[in-house]
Amino acid sequence: MAKLGEVQKVFVKEGEHKKKEPDESPLKVFERAKDWKANFDLPSHSRKDTYMMDQRVCATSFRPDAYIVSHEEKICVAIELTCPMEINMDKWHKKKEAKYRRELVSDVYQMEYMIVEVGARGGLSTDLRRSLRRLGFTKKEAGLVIDECRMMAEKCSFVIWIQRFNKSFVATEMLI
């Protein structure tokens, strides 16, 4: 019998399949609390206050694109969206993650970081699906979010491409 922390080797005969172990993974992030509050850095005519990180979580002037917080369970999920060319996705992921871990630190709250890269042509980092699943999305829900992200990136890139020579181009809200 394997001790805690040791890997037990299981041999499977040819033509047979390994039996699946029951899923004993830790609770998904969203399952650990019931009082989630979200705040997003979105343009809005009705926004009277300037967007900033909740100072009870982390005293910083750093502004993630979004954060979701549970004050009861002391958990904060910081979300950053980057839209680089697909060839630069790994480079930007490493830069953003290092910046987040340096700028968003809390002695009281458990910090989770979700760095999302959606390529300019609709390509996605492998971390998006993994992050959505870690938060508690089902496979189907994660797939729907990913499809929407791809579609929006492609639409935005198309509009930018069409308007590339228009010096008076004014960005407007994109409809899905």
Summarize the structure.
This protein is an alpha+beta fold. 28% of the residues lie in helices and 14% in strands.
Task: Produce the secondary structure layout.
Elements: E1 37-40, E2 66-70, E3 75-82, H1 89-103, E4 110-117, H2 126-135, H3 139-162
Parallel strand pairs: 3-4
Antiparallel strand pairs: 1-2, 2-3
What would you say this structure looks like, in words?
The chain has a 4-stranded mixed beta sheet with strand order 1-2-3-4. Helices cover 28% and strands 14% of the residues. A hairpin with a 4-residue loop joins strand 2 and strand 3. It has 176 residues and is an alpha+beta fold. The chain is built from 3 helices and 4 strands, in the order E-E-E-H-E-H-H. Helix 2 crosses helix 3. The N terminus is likely disordered.
Determine the number of helices (DSSP H or I, runs of at least 4 residues). Answer: 3
The number of distinct β-strands equals: 4
Helix fraction, binned, reads: 25-40%
Secondary-structure class: alpha+beta
The strand line-up of the biggest sheet is: 1-2-3-4
The sequence of SSEs as H and E is EEEHEHH
What's the average pLDDT?
A: 81
The termini sit apart by: 55 Å
Tag the structure with descriptive keywords.
176 residues, alpha+beta, 4-stranded mixed sheet, 3 helices, 14% strand
